[in-house]
Amino acid sequence: MLEVAPKVYWVRLPLPLKLDHVNVYVLDDGYGWTIIDTGFDTQKTRNIWLKLLNGPLKEKPVTRVLITHYHPDHIGLAGWFQNEFNVELLTTRTSWLMARMLVLDEQSEYTSESLNFYKRAGVPDIIFEKKKSERPFNFCDVVAPLPNGFKRVQEDEILNIGGINWRIKTGNGHAPEHITLWSNDIVIGGDQLLPSISPNLGVTRASQRQIQ
Description:
Metallo-beta-lactamase, Chain A, four-stranded antiparallel beta sheet
């Protein structure tokens, strides 16, 4: 854990992908911890969280998990935190519904829609035939089961975490109804802000003067 701002800690979790990590955050909520995003549901990631929970986080409980969007590297362990530690899950309705639907939709083979997509996209025959015989990747492979309950957060809602007011802003593009959190001088952007591939963020001269 690295403190990047007062009461805001950064954790980098490994991913078994070409993009080999995901950034998550832990916010000091005074009486507990609020976690923002969780990483994949893998044994390696669970072990890292257990080391954190028994190390720098051990003085107080995790009370809330806030998920910026439903992609598995962000929501993967939300259900595990809910089931194992009785935490409250906060996210948008779109993210929860998408994740809940996908985690229940396990496919043992590629659907005709997926195969048609690959064919129309020009996938070489040798790869296409291989895919037809394989079990596809499933959302539930890296996302823990999600309980029924969650707390919905919406555009322009204010969340007070550890005495800091965070305004919720939602956007699309990377994922529908993706949450970003804004305080006076900090933005937690999830995957709306990614090095080298994010849209340009422009500000007016008036905004620059206010920031300075």
